[in-house]
C-alpha cells in the first residue's frame, strides 16, 4: 500500500548546522515524551540538584543507569567530582519541584530548603521525598556528547518514595510542558 506524501524532510549537513536548524531540531525533539527526574549530589558540603529529562536505565545486571547533564551546570561538576549521585523520579504532583530545580540562577545556598528530601544511604546525596522511585548511583563512566556529559552509574541503593499503589501518575515532559500520564 502506498502512503500519502509526507511533509518534506529536513536534511542537514552536520558540519553546517546553523541557528535555524538548531531551532527546528528543538521543535521536533520536543515531540519526544520523557520522564522527569531530579539528579542530586552532596558536593563541598552543599546539596546540588537539577531537573533532568535525559535519563534511562541501561542494564539490569548489574543495575545501571545513565543521565545527560549540561557540562557547564553545577550539577555536572558535582556529579563528576563526587562520583556518587541520586536520581529521584518525579510524580505528576511534583511539577513545582521540577520547575524550581530547572530554573537557571538558582541559589547555591539553600537550594533544597523548600524541597522535602532525605539522604541516600551511602553517599548522603539528597533523595526527594515522595518520588515514584529513587536510585543512588556510583559513577562508572563519563562521556562527552556535544554540550553535555553522559554519566553512567551503577545502582548502589534504590527504593520507592510512595506506596506502589500510589505510583501511578509520573511527571512527563512533552511538547515543552509537563504533563501526567493519567490526564
List the helices and strands and how they pair.
Layout: H1 19-29, E1 34-35, E2 37-43, E3 46-52, E4 55-60, E5 63-70, H2 74-82, E6 84-89, H3 95-102, E7 117-119, E8 126-128, E9 133-145, E10 148-159, E11 171-174, E12 177-180
Antiparallel strand pairs: 1-11, 2-3, 2-6, 4-5, 5-10, 6-9, 7-8, 9-10, 11-12
Give an account of the 3D structure.
This protein has 183 residues and is an alpha+beta fold. It has a single domain (34-164), classed as Electron Transport, Fmn-binding Protein, Chain A (Pnp Oxidase, Chain A), CATH 2.30.110. 15% of the residues lie in helices and 41% in strands. The protein contains three helices and twelve strands, in the order αβββββαβαββββββ. The chain has helices at 19-29, 74-82, 95-102, and strands at residues 34-35, 37-43, 46-52, 55-60, 63-70, 84-89, 117-119, 126-128, 133-145, 148-159, 171-174, 177-180. It has a seven-stranded antiparallel sheet with strand order 3-2-6-9-10-5-4. The chain has a three-stranded antiparallel sheet with strand order 1-11-12, with no helix packed on it. Strands 7-8 form a two-stranded antiparallel sheet. The longest helix is centred in the N-terminal third of the chain and has 11 residues, at 19-29. The mean pLDDT is 89.
Amino acid at each position: 500500500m502506498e502512503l500519502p506524501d509526507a511533509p518534506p524532510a529536513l536534511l542537514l549537513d552536520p558540519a553546517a548546522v546553523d541557528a535555524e536548524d538548531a531551532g527546528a531540531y528543538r521543535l521536533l525533539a520536543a515531540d519526544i515524551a520523557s520522564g522527569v527526574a531530579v539528579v542530586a549530589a552532596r558536593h563541598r558540603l552543599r546539596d546540588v540538584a537539577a531537573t533532568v529529562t535525559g535519563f534511562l536505565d541501561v542494564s539490569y545486571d548489574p543495575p545501571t543507569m545513565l543521565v545527560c547533564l549540561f557540562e557547564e551546570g553545577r550539577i555536572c561538576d558535582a556529579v563528576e567530582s563526587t562520583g556518587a549521585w541520586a536520581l529521584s523520579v518525579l510524580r505528576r504532583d511534583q511539577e513545582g519541584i521540577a520547575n524550581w530545580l530547572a530554573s537557571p540562577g538558582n541559589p547555591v545556598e539553600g537550594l533544597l530548603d523548600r524541597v522535602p528530601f532525605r539522604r541516600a544511604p551511602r553517599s548522603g546525596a539528597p533523595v526527594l521525598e515522595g518520588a515514584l522511585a529513587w536510585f543512588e548511583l556510583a559513577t562508572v563512566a563519563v562521556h562527552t556528547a556535544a554540550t553535555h556529559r553522559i554519566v553512567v552509574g551503577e545502582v548502589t541503593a534504590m527504593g520507592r518514595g510512595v506506596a506502589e499503589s500510589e505510583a501511578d501518575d509520573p511527571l512527563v515532559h512533552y511538547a515543552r510542558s509537563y504533563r501526567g500520564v493519567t490526564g
